[in-house]
Amino acid sequence: MPFALLKYGLNGDFPFEKDADLPPPVSLKKRYDVVIIGGGGHGVATAYYLAKYHGITNVAVLEKGYLGGGNTARNTAVIRSNYLTSDGVKFYSESVKLFQNLSNEFDFNIMYSKRGQLTLAHTDAAIRGFRQRTEVNKHFGGKTELIGPKEIKELVPTLNMNPGHQPVLAGLWHMDGATARHDAVAWGYAKGATQRGVELHQLTEVTDVVVENGKVTAVKAKQGSVDHIIECGVVVQAVAGHSSLLAEKAGFRLPITTYPLQAMVTQPVKPFLDPLVSSPAFHCYVQQTGRGELVFGGGSDPYPLYNSRSTLELKEELLAHAVELFPFMANLKLMRQWTGLTDMTSDYSPIMGESPVQNYYLDAGWGTWGFKATPICGKTMAELVATGKTPSLIKPFGAERFNDFRQVNEMGATAASH
Length: 418
Ligand SMILES: Cc1cc2nc3c(=O)[nH]c(=O)nc-3n(C[C@H](O)[C@H](O)[C@H](O)COP(=O)(O)OP(=O)(O)OC[C@H]3O[C@@H](n4cnc5c(N)ncnc54)[C@H](O)[C@@H]3O)c2cc1C
What we know:
By secondary structure, the protein is of the alpha/beta class. It is 29% helix and 26% strand. The protein is built from twelve helices and 18 strands. The termini are far apart. Flavin-adenine dinucleotide is lined by residues 37-43, 62-65, 69-72, 74-78, 205-206, 238-240, 242, 246, 261-263, 297, 340, 342, 366, 368-372, 418.
């Protein structure tokens, strides 16, 4: 007789706490100090830090679908800081640091897994770019080295070193490269925020933004068939692929175009691949999850669109490239393919900060790379909302940079690596 099982199973001293327990829904209030539009990782992270560090809890997060159901649920969870510009490296390095402690902070496992990220160079020009990134990284906090074919082969023995007759000449080895469970990040932030008094309203779509004398005063929202007008002191929009649509409702245009981005996953196989591997030349990155599946993806679809349908064209192209890098993948079964809507800027950097409308703040332009920024973006956006001052870490990423030619060009460091 398994007495221990009976003893612990029937004993109320060891209650099971469901990880993602959220308070039951409440009715929308007439007014909040802060309304955050979008219940993805960024929205709930901002709410969490507002409550935790600034004591601002009269906050509503309005999400048209379900918590973390947008790009947060669809991304491939690459976390890294090996960017090209000093502004980029400083910003993303802070995010990596916050990620490393999130499980402790939440008392909830986000499955953070540090495994290193390897980007492959197939040309001399790519090596030159990698040299620059290595040096910028060393100066501003990332752990990155340029390595040769011998070390690459040791790190990834199954890699084809001559894919498509474009030999692997060198690699950018980023030791801080990691992954985390994306849903858990959203759940952890949402739980921490709601425990501190923030309200999360799912199935609540913001349909309009009310601006009076250049200042936001309210948002209009729809819950089922019921319309609401919610007054507010401050609004943060964090709606990723829908950024330019929402900005239009607030009365201004954003330099953002939305493109679909697809990814895929295979059946699970025995663990063989620890680092995350990406090849900008092949527009492909491959990584193995803790369950053994191979997750892989590439660049955005080539046309702007608000449709999250997966396509055969991308499947064929991406599979061909993945198989060039890891030929044995030809024998694997593809389990799923999915798509998200990415809000792309022309310099491949985000837009964070003030907007032309007073008290209406922007957390946008996260394109294919915003999951890794979730903690630091939430923290700095909360500081901006609470103090009205833009933290120095995000100053370079204001929307005004597109007017005065101060773009933060991260195209070369984003590409297929996300
Ligand atoms: C296939 C794919 C792979 C990716 N891989 C990576 C990666 O490996 N690493 C990385 O760093 N990034 C990656 N990204 C990018 C990353 O997913 C996003 O940049 C990030 O998740 C953005 O977070 P968010 O909270 O701003 O957006 P989301 O999670 O999309 O949240 C925005 C929310 O706003 C809601 N919303 C929209 N309009 C309204 C409205 N009018 N009213 C109310 N709610 C609204 C949406 O329903 C959505 O839930 C990838 C993206 C995709 C699609």
